[in-house]
Specification:
With 418 residues, the protein is an alpha/beta fold. It folds into 2 domains: 72 residues, no CATH class; 306 residues, Alpha-Beta Barrel (TIM Barrel), CATH 3.20.20.140. The protein has 15 helices and 8 strands. The strands form 2 sheets. Strands 4-5-6-7-8 form a 5-stranded parallel beta sheet. Strands 1-2-3 form a 3-stranded parallel beta sheet. Helix 5 runs parallel beside helix 6. The N terminus is likely disordered. The site of zinc ion has 6 residues, from loops.
Length: 418
């Protein structure tokens, strides 16, 4: 007993070596694992020969501690943004610069109104990607909508963009807001708007009522709007909350630490903000209360990391659809589960990209169309991991890329779709 503290102290400074009893075994392990090297033999240690608890990191049942298990790097640790090792993995690669079928992007943010030069530039960049139609989900209403629609109509590419309207949340929501907004919606749809959206994350987080309280997503004040959308047969495109991690404590276990460090306006600590699940609860109650209204939940409803939850929503709410904008990092890290999910819910999923960056679309095509393994993603603060292709069959690709959008969004040109 009196020797034990000394024994532990020696262990802590890496001098004592129970493996001194078993030198050959240590050598064999080092050879087999390729670990160890200089000094390894002297540092490899067995479990306390006196029957003490396994050492930290030592698996139960292992007779010999893994050599080098207690080492620290000999050099300063790299910055997480600097450490970008190139992969040595050699596997078949199939880059997909052009989508296999023409695509409707339900979630595109474009100027409204757009200038003729801008539209020409945009259309030129769409061609090589096989992007056929962009839904401008930077919604505008009233006079500005009329201008936006006129600008689209005036262009030779007029069939390649449609325009959503939106709700004016710039001021607080006072009693009567819903009725008034529903009347404006009727006028906007008459003028040519083909949906409402994107209602952004401010709806639920920052939009206030006239009494100063937070406007909840399922506040009955807005019921006339959702009812009107159902009657007018236009979809409501709604972005609720943000990735779950944005509501969590910002620590080194948070998957989005880097993004939160880069973007202060993406931090939604709860409290004072409502929690992720508070917002999702409000959203789901809204969707259920208006079963005749079509809702498209943006960004896979922020459940791309929990597709079972999204599947349950689809099961319970037949009026709900979703789109894949800006969540490719989650789809591409679960190729088998995501594949099965996309097969099962093939009638409920639409293609959307969000930020219009022509260079980024091919990553989506590659994830959806190939079974490539372990390839780079395009944005380090979304994900520090690699992507895998989920290899969707043609029939599902067609639904995802354009058929479901043609079904939900009125007034899209069907020309050029197979
Ligand atoms: Zn958006």
């Amino acid at each position: 007993m009196r020797l034990r503290p000394l024994f532990l102290a020696l262990l802590a400074c890496g001098v004592a070596s129970a493996t001194a009893y078993l030198p050959m075994a240590v050598d064999a392990q080092q050879t087999a694992t390729g670990e160890g090297g200089q000094g390894g033999a002297s540092r490899g240690r067995g479990r306390g020969a006196d029957g003490a608890q396994p050492l930290p990191g030592q698996e139960r049942g292992a007779l010999i501690r893994r050599p080098g298990a207690d080492r620290e790097p000999q050099f300063p640790l790299p910055n997480i943004r600097d450490y970008k090792p190139h992969s040595t993995l050699v596997v078949p690669e199939h880059k997909v610069p052009r989508a296999r079928y023409p695509v409707i992007d339900i979630h595109s943010h474009q100027p409204a109104p757009i200038t003729q030069e801008q539209f020409d530039t945009l259309a030129d960049s769409m061609g090589p990607l096989n992007l056929k139609i962009l839904v401008n989900s930077s919604g505008v209403s009233g006079d500005r909508l009329v201008e936006a629609l006129a600008a689209i109509k005036a262009n030779r590419n007029r069939d390649r963009m449609v325009q959503f309207t939106t709700l004016d949340f710039r001021g607080p929501v006072a009693p009567g807001f819903g009725q008034k907004a529903a009347r404006q919606l009727e006028a906007d749809v008459k003028a040519g708007a083909v949906g409402i959206g994107e209602l952004n994350k401010g709806f639920g987080l920052t939009v206030k009522k006239s009494d100063g309280s937070r406007l909840k997503i399922d506040d009955p004040e807005l019921d006339p709007v959702w009812e009107a959308a159902g009657r007018l047969r236009i979809p409501v495109f709604i972005h609720t909350a943000d990735p779950q991690e944005f509501f969590e404590e910002m620590n080194l276990k948070n998957e989005r630490w880097l993004e939160l460090a880069l973007y202060p306006d993406r931090r939604w600590p709860a409290p004072p903000n409502p929690s992720f699940n508070d917002l999702m609860g409000e959203r789901d109650r809204l969707f259920k209360r208006h079963p005749k209204t079509t809702f498209i939940a943006a960004h896979l409803g922020w459940h791309a990391n929990d597709l079972g939850r999204l599947g349950k929503m689809f099961d319970e709410m037949p009026n709900v659809y979703s789109e894949v904008g800006a969540v490719l990092y989650d789809i591409g890290r679960q190729p088998r589960y995501a594949h099965d999910f996309f097969i099962k819910y093939q009638d409920r999923l639409l293609f959307g990209k969000d930020s219009y960056q022509p260079d980024e679309f091919p990553y989506y095509w590659r994830v959806f169309e190939t079974t490539d393994e372990y390839f780079d993603y395009y944005r380090d603060y979304h994900a520090f991991w690699k992507l895998y292709g989920i290899g969707l069959p043609d029939q599902v690709l067609r639904k995802l890329y354009y058929q479901n959008a043609l079904k939900l969004v009125p007034g899209l040109s069907r020309a050029g779709f197979p």
